[in-house]
Amino acid sequence: xxxxxxxxxxxxxxxxxxxxxxxxxxxxxxxxxxxxxxxxxxxxxxxxxxxxxxxxxxxxxxxxxxx
Length: 67
Prior knowledge:
The protein is mostly helical.
């Protein structure tokens, strides 16, 4: 097993490259999930604004339009 991990002297380079790649991939997943949650929150706000806008259009031109 130690010979496999040593990899003819290149084990340090190979395993550190695997570790860096794994850290980058985990970071990308974390950033993607954070952006997803932020975009979902923005979507909810926009949907609420659309409901208010649609309601104001149904009420007629005399109704106030909230920004």
